Amino acid sequence: MAWTKYQYLLAAMMLITGSINTLSAKWADYFSAPGCNNSPEHHFSHPFVQAVGMFLGELSCLVVFHIALCQDRRRPEPRINPGQAFNPLIFLPPALCDMTGTSIMYVALNMTSASSFQMLRGAVIIFTGLLSVAFLGRRLLASQWIGILVTILGLVVVGLADFISGTRDDSHNLSQVITGDLLIIMAQIIVSVQMVLEEKFIYKHDVHPLRAVGTEGLFGFVILTLLLIPMYFIPAGSLGGNPRQVLEDALDAFCQIGYQPLIILALLGNTVSIAFFNFAGISVTKEMSATTRMVLDSLRTVLIWAASLALGWEQFHGLQVLGFLILLTGAALYNGLHRPLLARLPCCAAEPEEGDAAEREALLSGGRGSVNEES
Description:
The protein is mainly alpha-helical. It contains 14 helices and two strands. Helix 1 packs antiparallel against helix 10 (262-287).
């Protein structure tokens, strides 16, 4: 079935805003400016401040939901289902996972390349699949187990590409690259726990996706903003990346923004893009399918990689291309993209579906988390 103009617009919005989200966060890391108390010029290394901005973007989804709900109630026939009453605290556990995983990924993004960051996030398939079997009692198809194994192989290839590039790339030393890659994979374990929690406790409630995203954003924004206070005093050594070598120096971030106003443009790009990306992801799932969203998210990785090469942020490595193709194959097998191809072959039959495919694919969203998918 041919796409409509609106569907093309949604797909373009998801690709562009999703790419801007990662690229703007990485762009902020490249800025250098003096800090507070006449500290020397240094890189803008404030991952937790960036994470607060991202949660602010998610929080805006809650504002948009209530504005749309108010306008919808004025219509003769309302179209938006506000959903049933629920306890907002059910969003607290996944919000804590979201906050932890996102913060770790922003730390890792400062250590490795934007394209590797996006590719290695594909590891979420492995851990979410295993956790869904252990805690949700889900049975994975043979193709899904193969997809997990192929994804593991792809992660090894991407890691090998980073290992080789880290030995000849002056922008990141080898230990930083390896540490960043490991942190990204560790963050995917936390993100997979978030997805399983959302599947187990949230999806059984009739909650509008924008409201779910916004509520998690509210928890993440408030809690992480308060945590910036103790982080200002917690020593972190070289991991801190700021002159005081603490876990996060928010005051230093604001001082650097004052000296280099372009940093605020990068932070705004991260905040605004995540809001539009969430909206586009929800709409793509609703208007097309979650599988389409997965494909678009894979194309987003290509755009990020191409933009990073064009901007000179990284060098071309053939192994990275091979790793991306293997990761794409693993994701396609896990999400069942091979079934339409097998169905066309007279000698082969597609694997039978077990359970609700939309529910499974909603669990494995390509964006911020499964609450970004259609309920």
